Amino acid sequence: MTPGSNIPLSATRVTVDVTAPVRLDVSGLLLTADGKVRSDDDFIFYNQPSGPGVAYASGGGSAPDAITVDTGAVPADIEKIVVTASPDAAGQSFQGIEPTATVRDAASGAALASFTPPQLGAETALVIVEIYRRGGAWKARAVGQGYANGLAGIATDFGVSVEEPAPAPAPVPAPTPTVPTTQAPVAPPVQAPPAPPAPLAAPPLGAGKINLDKGRVSLQKNQTVSLVKGGAPLLARVKMGLGWEPAYRGKDIDLDASVIAYGPQRDHVDSCYFGKLSILNGAIKHSGDNLTGEGGGDDEVIVVDLGRIPAEVTGLVFTVNSFTGQKFTEVAKAYCRLVDATTDEELVRFDLTSAEAQTGVMMAKLVRQFSGEWDMTAMGEFVKSRTVRGMVKPAAKLL
Asked: Quick one: which H or E segment has residue 155?
């Protein structure tokens, strides 16, 4: 399977096991139509191995951990079960590790499909596949969505409480008995009240994805920021501004900013650039071509109405090309920034501090998460291409 692809399930009970060169922790979350669990009881993992229609099985280190879904027993208000994986070693990422999820007929063990997510790096947890209900039938979809803050980050995104368990109250000491002067029954010692049940213990939180709660974010290459403020997705109009200056004065450089839209299988949907200033029924608009890069501020601006991006578009890659053929080593102060189009507040900035002798660069990508929010990741990846047409395939590989 490839990211975003799906298959119909030919068995009512399926098992998803996840293998890798290292030991993995595998879990499952039962999600309603709003993409959230109903309660912590819908988080199925090693500390809570069973739920309605879903069960966790440990491989004991010699076999992969697995999640089994009995689709006939899944509650009617559950729309999907997401299967997650994270390295067992604390803080270990998927860099150099290629996990593979295999969907099997739980009765026979026969493989129905397998999926190995591509392009993994700093992620410490993945939503790797999902088993979902569509039109009365059940299907499996390859996902491969990564998180930098481990299983706890996934759990939090889907509404599970992952606070550290509160310490149990200290027991109340029994009173010291006194010697009675007459024979009388001695009162039993006072028992401490039972401690309240603690929240589910998930793996410790890591660095996590950055959000916008603390104001403007300056990204480094490969860093990701979640376009969320106060826990709510930033479903508003945003502007992606791109700017540059010639490194050597007196030599005009015509750089062109573009955005490429992709579907869930990395399929090219459309491109917005100086020759096509509006795409997706106006959800993405380009300001027009700047032929020199002279002057302060943004040289080219692309306005993106996140709330109007059609559902079939799940990824946007922002690119800059040198139409006149100069290399990016001849360009100074190249940057991209995300601005709230309503307030003109700068939200995110990525300064391209090192360049390569190429004519195209993928500056940043916006990826729609399964929870509905958008994440922006700084890229800074160079390729040989003077036009956006030559960026479509290399950008797809990096989604």
From this structure: helix 150-157
